[in-house]
Automatic annotation (TrEMBL):
The lineage of its organism: Eukaryota, Discoba, Euglenozoa, Euglenida, Spirocuta. Residues 6-113 form the Carbamoyltransferase C-terminal domain. It comes from Eutreptiella gymnastica. This is Carbamoyltransferase C-terminal domain-containing protein. InterPro entries: Carbam_trans_C, Carbam_trans_C_sf.
Amino acid sequence: PLLVIPADAAASLFPGLRGQSPYAGLLPQMSPAARVQFGFLAHVDGRVRLQTVHPDSNPWLSDLLWRVNATLGAPLLLGSQFGPYSRTHTVQDTLDEACRIGVDGILLEDHWISGTALRNGRGCKHESPPQK
């Protein structure tokens, strides 16, 4: 998984981080406090593939992360591919795959589609996953 976080929030979660990681090229170690709260986002060794976002270079995503923080209490998004055999080449492919595997929600460009909306069939042309 890929953790996307504002650059100015990264220092408290990743004390060993030197500089920024705008291209997800670093695997910093989470702080012990961050592991308690967000350890489920990390690899077994406590490292996370990290992308930092700065408001000067990506104002839209930086703003989105701070809005997520206001709503959920943490300015971060988790990104992941659907899997090595996924065939997500179009928006509809992505929605169908999200429906199939039962995600909590999906962000496509500047559109958020909740898992509830996916399960209720909006955006899915195939059957929805079983309820969790």
